[in-house]
Amino acid sequence: MMQHLPALPLLIPLLAGALMLLVERRGIVAQRVVAWLSMAAMLVAAAFLLHQADQGPLLVYLLGDWPARLGIALMVDRVNALLVLTSALLAVAALLYACAGWDRRAPHFHALFQLQLAGLNGAFLTGDLFNLFVFFEVVLIASYGLLLSGGRGLRMRAGLHYVVFNIMASSLFLVALGLLYGMTGTLNMAEMALRIANAPPQDMAMLRAASGILLVVFCAKAALLPLYLWLPETYSRAPAAVVALFTIMTKVGVYAVLRVYSLLFGEGSGALDGWAWDWLLPAGIITLVLASLGVLASRSLRGTVSYLVIVSAATLFIAFALQTPAAVGAGLYYLVHSTFVTAALFLIVDLVRRQRGPLGDRLDQAGPMRGTTMLGLLFLVAAVSVAGLPPLSGFFGKIALLAAVPPGQVALVWTTVLGTSLMQLVALSRVGSQMFLRAQPWAGADMPAPPRKLEIAAAIVLLAYGMALTLAAGPALRYAQDAGAQVLAPAAYIEQVRATQPLLRTPSP
Amino acid sequence: MMELALATAIGVLTAGGVYLLLRSRSFDVILGLTLLSYATNLLIFSAGRLAVGKPPVLQGGLPAELGNYTDPLPQALVLTAIVITFAMTAVAIVVAMRSSADNGSDYVDARAPGDVP
Predict the structure, then answer these.
(1) Residue extents of the structural domains in chain A
(2) Which of B27, B29, B30, B44 to mutate to test the interface with A (most CBs of A within 10 A)?
(3) For residue A328, with 0-12 CB atoms within 10 Å meaning exposed, 13-18 middle and 19 or more buried, which class applies?
(4) What is the CATH number of domain B2-52+68-103?
(5) Predicted ipTM?
């Protein structure tokens, strides 16, 4: 059993998703039971995986028992074990929110939700570039369903933009894969890293071009500089439980950049050593500034939070582009924190929007709102955390990042990160005062229904994760720093993947 | 000669796809996506080098080098890519039809009355 552990986060949601289609006719309760059983199993598997990964050596799982250079291998190190656990924890809260009643309205919600989790876990765990493409597609197909099911009107238009944009990005992904396969003759990342390191000089221009196309694709998923325009519109039109899960989808793009460009073009890869990071640092900085302006300028509540998602992706690119173990570690801590807190904000904002009646999530008018105390407190905690004020997890993430900046780049990075934090703080204070302090009591009879207990609980769960990250900041940061050191040392990684032998099959020549 | 023909085909398909993708009607955009995916599939196919009349499985007597065989992997990749893009195109068509029915316009940037941009 233990030797199959790396495949479990993939298999559990896949099986649950298939089972869901069978029990769909038996009503919503059966679906919820399957969903929660799957979530529990996934949490246990993810926790075990994290524990195993923290022992140090890389876990390699050969699917079908083919050697890694021929078949598909799953690889688990500290970084992707952390991401698998993060997505499982996030999914718990999103599922809780959906089970408050929204899941009745969207057909196939539970099946699509499980398939999306399978895609996310697969994208995190795979060690094969084409398999990464396949899991990206699984994530995307499930996300189309989740985004659009039961949608009408303008959500359909936003959905069309999202679908077209992503199909185009997938085509580019395939172009890059075709070129890379043509140059190196393999799709396994560890094997490809070796062949790139030994590539003849005349191939370098082509390899650089192919990996540049790949970078564009990942940046489109992660919403970096010119490629983020799809995100605010899509995310602000999506249902709240779905968009809470979507906050980890941009992180898949960020993770793919970190994995591919530290493994294929990392230490000891010859002429192309680390070329992508020289581009990503300025791109991250400009994105951070523009997204913070977006937070300030947004005219709707959900638009504000959408731009905060871009802010977190941009901060991550800055952290990873610094390429020191401490900076990457700080980035990973910040990744977990920002995923939870932006998801919490999406849920809170949805509750606030429903308490404001016809005004919805418009920011330009203050108006009547029912029950400001509870939602106001939740918003306060989330806003303090996302802006990076002490004493919550955002503060620790940002301070660890700022402390890890190498001396040469201190001026630039500190100025941007601190300046944009101030901009976010101003924007969030304005939102808070407009929504809660200037709210008038309801006068009319058509009072909106109060938020359901489960929905409040889901938001509290997400904020509690942030609290736990704050209280356990020491061990969490230690783990993240180790993960950063591990991901920046690709040599051991490549060695381990190549050394793993099939258990039953005799090695082919 | 074969390389030139294939490269030209890929180039023409890509150019047509990009042109259609930049137009404002959703029908044209979806056609553009289809052309683009054809170009991509041909490109992946050509990544295994072009060879005529060579077997994709190892045979006794022939040394196991790429000069004597065609590479079977790109063909498997193309098959996966075709299936995925086919499904994606179907999704895009459904979404586009629903969007044009709901918003009363076939334009990609269809605006409903009273919409805050």
Answers:
(1) 2-440+448-499
(2) B44
(3) buried
(4) 1.10.287
(5) 0.91
